[in-house]
Automatic annotation (TrEMBL), chain A:
Region (Disordered): 217-305, 332-374, 484-518, 543-567
Protein name: LTV-domain-containing protein
GO cellular component, one term: cytosol
Biased amino acid composition, Low complexity: 258-275
Transmembrane segments: none
Signal peptide from the UniProt entry: none
InterPro entries: Ltv1
Taxonomic superkingdom: Eukaryota
Family statement: Belongs to the LTV1 family.
GO biological process, one term: ribosomal small subunit export from nucleus
From TrEMBL, chain B:
Protein name, per record: 40S ribosomal protein S20
SUPFAM superfamilies, per database record: Ribosomal protein S10 (SSF54999)
HAMAP family hit by this protein: Ribosomal_uS10
Annotated source species: Sistotremastrum niveocremeum HHB9708
NCBIfam families on file: uS10_euk_arch (TIGR01046)
The keyword Ribonucleoprotein is assigned to this record: yes
């Protein structure tokens, strides 16, 4: 073999045992044992270790005919490191046994001095493998699945199913357990170790005799249908051990009575199972033959819930129904049936008495706070609701002026208030003194109050009538009047220019006014928010007349040039004005709306 | 100077105590949740140190990152976007020299969720 490869880690060598820490199996009997650990070490085979085959497995793969080798020691050489095919040539002939002195050969065996440290550690290796304590390993035996299913089911399997041959004592006990009448809520009784007493003697074998007589209801017995099982009367207590005999007797009795055979064993109106509901009557089938095989016997009636055994849900419904009926017809409820706290307390009274209402207008005191009335009146007087939602305290003061007064007084701080009030008083006093000194009438000036207070615009408006609407007062001196000609007016809102035709009237008016006001200029000016630009009345295209001389042509060209220049200037002016206006307009708009963007007109 | 045995499994001469067979145990902890893993590791090491065992403290092997890179789309259409999912597997080793008693106590440790524990007992 070539040089020794790196030795494997101790834990990866074939002899190592691997375990996984897992939860204990549910089928382990110790799963519910509080002392046993929750986790166990489960052995598993790691990686490649499980892949190898043992010799037996390999031999099983090879056909038996091939196993028969000619020589017995085929493969022996491979034990000693010679891995060539042994079937034809025997390599063992070249290998000598160690330690055995053969004749004619002088040989001794000398161990090579071992330098590796592995040898030392290996000497510590124990022959015995580590045995884990069994508590750590999973249990050898597992519970069968059937027992687990049995444990999980509500009824133990020994009690499940139809068991006609069940021990009658056991059957009676089971029925008693289901029966409500046996429930004893006496606190004294439950304090005792009741069940401890019961099970103290251990389980009863099926063959054991019991002291008390087994009494079965209704099977040919005359005793009362009481709950008294330990009947003193020995009577016709049919203690036939075989259920079949009893059944036969029962059947015979039924035939005697000639009654309808029901599904439940109904005898004397009392069924053995404890529910006293009778079955629904069966429909007669012609010829006595069941035509429809899949259906149950007899009744053509639909399954109504009244025929179903009362379970928890149906019992609740029954109670609710009873309560409803009581409410409607004023019947007294049974003592057994309790009231839940939520329902309105109803007393047993006749319907005609219900008119006397004990429902009072006011809520009982427990439900309202003692200061409810006070706070309500306070609210109604002093507070108001704005916009359906906001609550606001009402400002004292009937009219607007009064409210303003209260506001003013409230806003003034205490110190300021005093100062202002002092100041006001002082002024009043001085005024009074002055008036007194100057012998003026002190006090209320009637004429002054009666006189109407007018301003100039109001006066001007009084001159208007149907024919005459006086214009705004104009400044006389230094006023620059716009030149005559069609005015282009830029609309303030839309920004579109429009030509305003000067009326004859306006022309006359303008002519009537002062000469100084008539001044022709090409200045821009703003008047009353309107831009007025001087513009030529009519723009005539300069035509080229036929047969013009050189001077004429020069003159015409010059005229055209001049015209164009003027036009350019006008355009520029117009544009810049437009831009300025737009900018200011946008600014105003943004100021109003915040910087959200220009609203497109 | 007298040689005092470090752990109770050996007596003064260094030979193992009779009756107390010590074995080399390797506990391998694997998890994708580092926090729980480290907590459990620390717990184990502390317990082992309390019992004066020779512990080779948690050897952290390189984290293995299992990556899956898939197209996001169920069909082939769209810009070629890829999802890169990965799962990081952390592995820790703890070597102990202990007797079988200790192994019993390992099973009673409350396991952290998500940590897989393997115990290897050397040959």
């Amino acid at each position: 073999m070539p040089e020794k490869t790196k030795s494997k880690s101790l834990f990866r060598q074939p002899g190592a045992k691997h375990f996984q820490l897992v939860h204990r199996s549910q089928r382990d009997p110790l799963i519910h044992d509080p002392e046993a650990s929750q986790h166990v070490l489960k052995a598993f085979v790691r990686g490649n270790e499980g892949k190898g085959k043992t010799r037996d497995e390999l031999e099983a793969l090879i056909a038996p005919s091939d196993l028969q080798a000619t020589r017995p020691n085929v493969g022996e050489a491979s034990l000693y490191g010679v891995y060539y095919d042994d079937t034809e040539y025997d390599y063992m002939q070249h290998l000598r046994p160690v330690g055995i002195q053969e004749e004619g050969v002088d040989s001794i065996w000398i161990d090579a001095p071992s330098t590796s440290s592995n040898s030392k550690s290996k000497s510590k290796k124990f022959s015995e493998d580590m045995i884990l304590p069994p508590s750590v390993l999973p249990s050898k035996t597992e519970l069968p699945l059937s027992s687990i299913h049995a444990a999980q089911s509500a009824i133990p399997p020994s009690l499940q199913g139809l068991q006609p041959d069940m021990d009658p004592h056991l059957r009676q006990v089971l029925e008693a357990l289901e029966d409500e009448a046996f429930v004893d809520d006496d606190p004294e009784a439950t304090a005792d170790d009741f069940f401890g007493e019961l099970v103290a003697d251990g389980e009863r074998d099926s063959d054991e005799e019991v002291e008390f007589e087994f009494q079965e209801w209704g099977v040919g017995s005359d005793e009362e249908h009481g709950l008294d099982e330990d009947a003193d009367e020995d009577a016709e207590g049919q203690e036939s051990a075989d259920w079949e005999d009893r059944f036969r007797k029962f059947k015979a009795e039924q035939k005697q009575k000639g009654g309808v055979v029901d599904d439940g064993s109904v005898v004397d109106g009392y069924s053995e199972g404890g529910d006293t509901l009778s079955g629904l009557p069966k429909l007669a089938v012609a010829g006595g033959k069941r035509r429809r095989t899949g259906t149950t016997d007899g009744s053509g009636y639909s399954l109504s819930s009244s025929a179903v055994y009362r379970n928890a849900g149906l019992t609740t419904l029954d109670e609710q129904f009873d309560r409803l009926m009581a409410k409607e017809y004023g019947e007294v409820l049974d003592d057994d049936e309790y009231d839940d706290g939520d329902s309105v307390s109803h007393s047993s009274r006749a319907p005609d008495e219900s008119d006397e209402s004990d429902e009072s207008e006011e809520t009982p005191d427990l439900l309202s706070r003692p200061d409810l009335q006070a706070s309500m009146s306070d609210f109604l007087d002093n507070y108001e609701i704005i916009g359906g939602r906001k609550l606001r305290q009402v400002m004292p003061g009937m009219t607007g002026a009064d409210k303003l007064e209260t506001l003013r007084r409230g806003m003034a701080s205490a110190a300021d208030k005093e100062r202002i009030l002092a100041e006001a008083e002082r002024i009043e006093r001085e005024d009074m003194e002055r008036k007194v000194n100057q012998n003026e009438m002190v006090g209320y000036d009637e004429d002054e109050d009666k006189k109407d207070r007018w301003d100039c615009e109001t006066i001007l408006s009084t001159y208007s009538n149907l024919e005459n609407h006086p214009k705004l007062i104009r400044v006389r001196d230094g006023a620059v009047r716009p030149p005559r000609g069609p005015k282009i007016v830029v609309d303030r809102k839309t920004g579109f220019p429009s030509v305003v035709e000067e009326d004859q009237k306006e022309v006359e008016d303008s002519e009537d006014s002062d000469d100084t006001t008539k001044r022709e200029c090409a200045n821009l000016f703003v008047q009353g928010g309107m831009l007025i630009l001087p513009v030529k009345a009519v723009r005539e295209t300069i035509k080229r007349p036929k047969g013009e001389s050189k001077e004429d042509k020069k003159a015409r060209k010059a005229a055209v040039k001049a015209e164009r220049q003027v036009r350019r200037v006008e355009k520029k002016a117009m544009k810049s004005t437009f831009e300025d206006e737009k900018r200011s307009f946008v600014k105003v708009l943004n100021g109003r709306r915040g910087v959200e963007g220009v609203k497109k007109l | 100077m007298a040689y005092v045995a470090k752990d109770k499994d050996y007596d003064a001469t260094g030979a193992p105590l009779p009756g107390e067979k010590i074995h080399k145990i390797r506990i391998t902890l694997t998890s994708s949740n580092v926090r729980n893993l480290e907590k459990f590791c620390a717990d184990l090491v502390n317990r082992a140190n309390d019992k004066q065992l020779r512990v080779k403290g948690p050897v952290r092997l390189p984290t293995k990152v299992l990556k899956i890179t898939t197209r996001k789309t169920p069909c082939g259409e769209g810009s070629k976007t890829w999802d890169r999912y990965e799962l990081k597997v952390h592995k820790r080793l703890i070597d102990l020299n202990s007797s079988s008693e200790i192994v019993k106590q390992i099973t009673s440790i409350s396991l952290e969720p998500g940590v897989e524990v393997e115990v290897t007992i050397a040959a």
